[in-house]
Amino acid sequence: MDPPATSQPQVRLQMDDHEEVQHIDKKPRLGFATEENDAIHEYDDHDPESSKEAMEGLTSVFDQSRSKRSRPQKKLTKKMKSMVIEPYSAQDVIFRDVVSLLGQEAVDKAIQEGKDWESPFQFREEVELTASILSSTEMRDDSLIRCKYFGQCAGCQYQMLPYQTQLGLKQEVLVKAYQNFSDLPQELIPAISPTMSSPLQYGYRTKLTPHFDRLPKAKMADTVLDGSRPDWFKIGFNGSGTRTVIDIERRRRLYTYKQGVSLLLRESLPTGTRPHSHSPSFGLRPSSPMGTFTRLEVAETTSDPEKKVCVTDQRATVLERVGDTVFEYPASAFFQNNNSILVPFTSYIRDMILPEGTPPQSKVTHLVDAYCGNGLFALTLASSFQRVAGIELDVSAIQWANRNAQVNKVSEDKVSFIAGHAANIFETVQDFPRDKTAVIIDPPRKGSDERFIEQLILFGSQTVVYVSCNVHTQARDIGMIIKQSEDLKRGNKYVLDSVRGFDLFPQTAHVESIAVLRLVPS
């Protein structure tokens, strides 16, 4: 039950940059920097009616904490006071939410008085705010929670919410991201479309990385020969806001594992499975102490279900089907983690590039996949275009993309994968007709840098589809593309046609986003 409106609980806003699972970490591609997974959370806007009371509570806690600080803590605080919050980072998102919570006037006053606003960003430090609950919410329904570790484990945040409510909150995340980070006037931002739901809301992850505790020094001499687990050994996922491992019970035997402090569990089709095969081979490599494949029991979600195997060797090859296309890639490489949504995900991109009712003379015929990786977009969309080019800086990824083209019997005349150069990404596709070309970009969480954006604008494709796992850097980049295309005054400019979220991670606060830009006359 929600507390009555008159209660005044202690609300803790805590920032910890070690939260994991809900965000995907992509390798930096096209030569641009990336960052560690940021735990970016969005909160509903609150009426700053009680800003004065909240500030009094905030000031009280600051004063008490200062009196208790040791000399090293005071030195650290002095150092942190000069810290500049990185734009578009998790800290920046939280700061803007603090402004929404307390009101701009209260925040300006606190800054003028020299309040220690950086303290929430110190490791394991908290700020306590006394807030009044002005109204209760009917969104929470604890009967929906299906995991006994919910609230302890950092993996999920939304299990207590009806699924449609989750989708609505993620739509609001996109609304706020473009309001706060695109630096665009409201009239240039289209209405954010409803979030596309995931066919699977549970059991959708194709990759897990359980953590386990390091061996205590006192146990170094112990030997476990029967495969049992000592009482002190914990294996599972990091707790919410901590590095502590939450012990998850195991239903299957885990073989001896001596490397690192985490495991890789990746779902794969068995070796021998190929496109359009209705009788796939299920031959597995023999199990070994290190483990390469272990058969998994999976729910049958299609009329022609395929048994899956679990890959535990990072050097092994994973096979994954997206519609009629099969992909092979190293188990350690990046690939989208929710296979159930990839067909509607890629189909939506195709439909945005080739909308119904487009005159034949205006139809896009060429596609450039500028962050192609192992070829997900280039190969799944190839049948809709005359020519497709995938561009990557990572030579290894290009090799896997070419291999996937061969596996799926796609000719080089139709799809080509090219190792690009950061200084001139689009050098190899200069013969593509700009008015009939679409470019897909899917950068890492850090987003694209100004050098790439400048090249993208100068290339001048008719359509740009921006796929992002970080809606805040996407909003920033979209704003830059629109403004810089106007500043060039080349007779045309980019406009934002649509933005839509996709729920690749149900039960979490994360939302993927697809933004579509069109080139129009100035």
Automatic annotation (TrEMBL):
It holds the Pfam family tRNA_U5-meth_tr. Residues 67-78 have a biased composition (Basic residues). Belongs to the class I-like SAM-binding methyltransferase superfamily. RNA M5U methyltransferase family. Keywords: Methyltransferase, S-adenosyl-L-methionine, Transferase. It comes from Hermanssonia centrifuga. The active site is at C469, C469 (nucleophile). This is Uncharacterized protein. One of its GO terms (molecular function) is tRNA (uracil(54)-C5)-methyltransferase activity, S-adenosyl methionine-dependent.
